[in-house]
Specification:
By secondary structure, the protein is of the alpha/beta class. It folds into two domains: 200 residues, no CATH class; 98 residues, no CATH class. It is built from eleven helices and nine strands. The strands form two sheets. The chain has a seven-stranded mixed beta sheet with strand order 1-4-3-2-5-9-6, with helices on both faces. β2, α1 and β3 form a beta-alpha-beta unit. α1 runs parallel beside α11 and α8 runs antiparallel to α10. The N and C termini lie far apart (48 Å).
């Protein structure tokens, strides 16, 4: 079993799904947003979760626990309570789901490559949901909606923004050879660009993308020779990013890895997992949710005195920060 206490509620609110992810069918939104973290990104990932709610209160949300502490997990469950308030007041029929990744079920080489775990958890969700699935790294912060990212995925079937460098810089030759030899890709060029797996959006209705990108991406994650060759390291290979880049370059979607279509949440807003700094951002997001949707919500972890606007400055944004905005 890949997840601990699968289908069992252990401390989480009763409405939180801990087992099977339902297939998209009757929900108002076909978007499932997925994020998660271990204890080094926990507080930032809670902000990512709230930014998802602000972007689409009718979506469904899945949080993957890759190793939170007990304290962090209890805070997460408190945030679930606030998100549930939003769903009820907005009359959303989306769901909230939680899965705790069971590292002991996987070989030890995966334990040091936490990004490989996110591939498995993300694809498990996408294959079950069969709609629009959006993965956000825990340090992401959606600042001004997701319409461009979602549109790119609806048109091409998959979207991941560009990343600096090319496959020569970030793909180990053993991975390239494995992908070719096992017919997971038809061709490979070291001059091809890289994607950023900090954001991945896929549309299940594009069967060619499902067959040629999502399934091979998933299969590769279980094979060390494919995703993390023994001669590779973080200086010459980017594991999941290298593999997904090769798979995308194989089908040439117009918008992925294209600087003319570079739309993504703010990346790397972890701030060293500083609890107090992240807490202020949580307060900002809770205030934004309430004002945007004209509702009132409470949170047992964030006092109302902290629910106020503050300037949000950070790295790696694709939408210009308004310098005239002085909250």
């Amino acid at each position: 079993m890949r997840y601990e206490n699968y289908g069992i509620s252990v401390g989480s609110p009763s409405y939180v799904l801990t087992g099977n992810i339902p297939r998209f069918q009757y929900q108002k939104s076909d978007v499932l947003m997925v994020t998660g973290a271990s204890d080094d990104q926990a507080f930032a990932s809670f902000n990512c979760l709230y930014s998802m709610v602000l972007a689409d209160p009718y979506a469904s949300y899945l949080y993957i626990d890759f190793g939170l502490t007990d304290k962090e997990r209890n805070i997460l469950f408190a945030h679930f309570e606030s998100i549930r308030q939003v769903q009820l007041k907005m009359k959303s029929n989306g769901f909230i789901a939680y899965r705790k990744f069971k590292w002991n079920s996987f070989p030890k080489w995966m334990w040091t490559e936490k990004n490989i775990g996110k591939v498995i958890a993300h694809m498990d969700a996408a294959f079950a949901w069969k709609g629009i699935t959006m993965w956000n790294d825990g340090g992401n912060l959606i600042r001004e909606g997701i319409s461009r990212e979602i549109t790119n995925a609806r048109v091409d079937g998959v979207y991941s923004p560009p990343s600096e460098g090319n496959q020569k810089r970030w793909t180990h030759p053993d991975t390239a050879n494995f992908l070719i030899q096992h017919h997971l890709i038809d061709h490979f060029s070291y001059d091809d660009p890289n994607c950023s797996t900090g954001l991945i959006v896929s549309d299940w209705s594009h069967s060619d993308v499902v067959e040629r990108v999502l399934y091979p991406y998933y299969q590769c994650a279980f094979t060390q020779k494919c995703v993390s060759p023994r001669n590779s390291n973080k200086d010459n290979h980017r594991q999941d990013q290298s593999v997904l880049s090769a798979l995308l370059n194989n089908i040439k979607p117009r918008r992925s890895m294209n600087w003319d279509f570079d739309y993504h949440p703010a990346f790397h807003w972890e701030f060293g997992n500083d609890e107090e700094k992240c807490k202020k951002i949580s307060g900002n997001l809770l205030r934004s949710i309430q004002d945007t949707y004209q509702i009132r919500i409470d949170n047992t972890y964030i006092p109302r005195s902290i629910m106020k606007y503050t300037r949000l400055d950070g790295p790696y944004v694709s939408r210009v920060i308004d310098r005239e905005w002085k909250p």
